[in-house]
Amino acid sequence: MIKGYSYIILARNAHKKLFEMYLKKLILCLTALFLAPLSFSAWDDINMTPGVNAIAQEIFGLHMTIFWICVVIGTLVLGFMVFLIIKYRKKEGVEPADFDDNPKLELTWTILFALILVGMAIPATSTMIKAYDDEEGDINILITGHQWKWQYEYMEDEVSFFSNLTTSLDARNNIAPKTETYLLEVDEPLVIPVNKRVRFLITANDVIHSWWVPDFAVKQDAIPGFINTAWTFVDEPGVYRGQCTELCGVYHGYMPIVVKAVSDSDYKDFIQGKRDLKAQQALLTEKLWETDELFAIGEEVYLKNCVACHQVNGAGIPPVFPALAGSEIVMNDKGRQVEILMEGVQGAAMQSYAEQLTEVEIAAVITYTRKAWGNDAGGDGEIVVPKEILDYKNNKL
Amino acid sequence: MSAVIEGHHDDHHHHGPAKGISRWLFTTNHKDIGSLYLWFSFIMLFIGGAMAMVIRAELFEPGSQIVSPEFYNQMVTNHGLIMVFGVIMPAFVGFANWLVPMQIGAPDMALPRLNNLSFWILPAAFGVLIATFFMEGGAPNFGWTFYAPLSTEYAPPTVTYFIFAVHIMGASSIMGSINVITTILNMRAPGMTLMKMPLFVWTWLITAYLLIAVMPVLAGAVTMMLMDIHFGTSFFKAGGGGDPVLFQHVFWFFGHPEVYIMILPAFGIVSHIIETFSRKPIFGYESMVYAIASIALLSFVVWAHHMFTVGMPIAGELFFMYSTMLIAIPTGVKVFNWLSTMFKGSLTFETPMLFAIAFVALFTIGGLSGIMLAIAPADFQYHDTYFVVAHFHYVLVPGALFSIIAGVYYWLPKWTGYMYDEFMGKTHFWLSFVSVNLTFFPMHFVGLAGMPRRIPDYAMQFADYNMIVSVGAFLFGLSQLLFLYVVLKAIFYGKKATGQVWEGAKGLEWTLDSPPAYHTFETPPNLESGEAKA
């Protein structure tokens, strides 16, 4: 009894503490809110990024110009309003005026508005023309939006890879601590060289996404059936982060963009490394594989690529994301399962993994799902080896 | 004003309201239907508001807290749909029903049975929409703008119910608009020429035309979706040769005029309130009318400013940038006219006036952020961030919603015959005013700093401001419960109101008793020229 009671007190205190913590945070935030415009360091956190290249900086300058014009207009209008509220409150013996128009005055302010707008339109038009430049780049990269990851394809070098969020589920569920780059970190960033004109060709595979890197001032919708273009030119090596900005389904908030700008020689090394990796992976399909080996790799692949929809326990979220545990296909129809992994399912979130994963990874993840969650007991328990995936690719795709 | 008003007393009491529930089910009385619309809107405000509370609770801190990303998307979608189609629009139709006949000296709406139908299919539509929450696959989750193919090939199976619901809402709006137009054009009291109509009537006349023009376009968009989903067409399916961007063009051709449908009647309401509490006629009546008309016309040629990032040719970007900027002119004219109405007036600050002044001030902020958004190159950085969320909430919450609240306080004594509690009304105002800014002002900052909209979780640098926003939102939500209390208290315990109610109020409705008889103006008032103007 006493013990239980003390728990309650503890819990209450914990609540109190939590409340105090929130209160402190809140007071801090409110202070920050009102002091923010006064201090320059804080100003950066609440304003558009100036960006890292000429066009982004120009857009930032335009934004600030328009912003200050709006602040001045807003201050004048609201200030005048406060003046009216104070000056013309009802007083004994003061009769209200009864005029109800003044055509000259009205014409004057209409013309004034028009002039202000023309003043805004001129710099806006010039920036627009500079931003809209469709020339070929030194490097052309095809960016494809998938639910919920980005694919980058270096057109000249025949290198292609997918970029997935790496923030752990534990961090998202508040079990593990959150890092500085929470939700803005990926396994394979897009690597581009500095001092080169990089052109992006942007499209999508399923629904509409939007590729946005604030530091480059590039935001372009990725639309299935269309290829949009955008370009950037970065002079400083660095890591630049962005996010998908068009609602694209359940995990729209979880498909960030990370761009690493590197020196030209580092860039060449990167491309060479990617090519070597591809060659190594091709060799692996000829190796003789043990079931346990495949199962272990498959589990890793599954946790990285499949859990978002099919869940850790294979139960899925029916009816949108079907269960794999106990699924007839996963237990007894190996051929169909390979087909789904390779070609995706029309009209559903299930996409083709033929390009996203290596042959080994696909074989491993299929093997894993056929062995896990009691599926091997209920089904035929057959495994898939990388060679079968390679054959499927060569014959069918 | 002292228009001749004999005849508004109904001498031959041949039919008062029916008894019990059938009064409301079968009513063809514009006052009853007006009340139905307003109560419906009020209920939906709390449902849509509860969804906003869920959104803000989830965003209170980074990380997944209380709802899954899937349910979060359903909240975002249905919050938007309900607030737009279930709160703001029906509330304005409720005002139109109550006020248009009383302001133009007509006995009722022109088409009373149609009126009953256009109300009663509305609860059906929202019944269907809300029922999707309990169906397999969950409620619509693709945002209130329902961009294809997310809303077609990749939508939950309930999208069909959503399409059906939108069709019914559209039918309701079209019928309501036909009724408003017919009433205004045919049933004005003798002597009330168009340029003498009260401004609220003017705003609704133009709004009704906008509705008739664009609701069929929305119906077309959802019908194409239906065809794509069930009948094998490929309007929006890239794989079948269709065009996902076409959807956006069609949607925003409806969507942008829709934005003005939600703000024009607000202009009318606020104009009446400001002149009443300034004790001075509205400044620039004619320019007000022309401004409303030009805003309405311009609204048809600005739609692609919602689509600056879809990859339009530069000529398109520039055209839509310029046309959008033009809208600032008539809007600025209206703001200056309201200020000039207050200039040299004799101002008092009862609750309706407080809300109306807040409307002008905060709508101006929303308008200025609108100009920033119109600048196409800068919009590449603003588009689909919280800056946009801040902008449209500033025009819809302290804009449209505040005007509705102001209008309710202003006309409630007329409608019910009882005064509301002024102290509680003012408390409601100050709580709402502070919390609405606490909610939506910081959104500008997180948006500029790079937070995309419609995400259930966010990066660490946005944490502080999101917490402030959430606290503001909870406070704003709670304040609206106070509004409900003030309204109910007025109805059940309020002091008797006079017919005039407000010292400075002018217009035909104030010549009637409070509450007005069940049937009013059965014989039209005889207006001397120049007297019926708002």
Strand content of chain A: 15-25%
Q: What does the average pLDDT of chain A come to? A: 86
Number of separate helices of chain A: 13
CATH topology (fold) name of chain B: Cytochrome C Oxidase, Chain A
Largest sheet of chain A: 5 strands, mixed
Assign a percent range to the helix content of chain A: 40-55%
In CATH, the topology of the largest domain in chain A is named Immunoglobulin-like
CATH architecture classification name of chain B: Up-down Bundle
CATH architecture label name of the largest domain in chain A: Sandwich
Rounded to the nearest angstrom, the radius of gyration of chain A is: 29 Å
Summed up, the domain count of chain B is 1
Explain what this protein looks like in three dimensions.
The complex is a heterodimer of chains A (397) and B (534). Chain A has 397 residues and is an alpha+beta fold. Chain A folds into 4 domains: 13-41; 54-89 and 100-131, no CATH class; 139-280, Cupredoxins -  blue copper proteins (Immunoglobulin-like); 285-396, Orthogonal Bundle (Cytochrome Bc1 Complex, Chain D, domain 2), CATH 1.10.760.10. Chain A is 48% helix and 15% strand. In chain A, strands 3-2-1-5-8 form a 5-stranded mixed β-sheet. In chain A, strands 4-10-9-6-7 form a 5-stranded mixed β-sheet. The termini of chain A are far apart. The model of chain A is unreliable at 1-12 (pLDDT under 50). Chain B contains 16 helices and no strands. Chain B is globular, with a radius of gyration of 23 Å. Classes of the chains: A alpha+beta (397), B mainly alpha (534). Chains A and B meet through helix 1, helix 3, helix 4, strand 7 and strand 9 of A and helix 3, helix 9, helix 10, helix 11 and helix 12 of B.
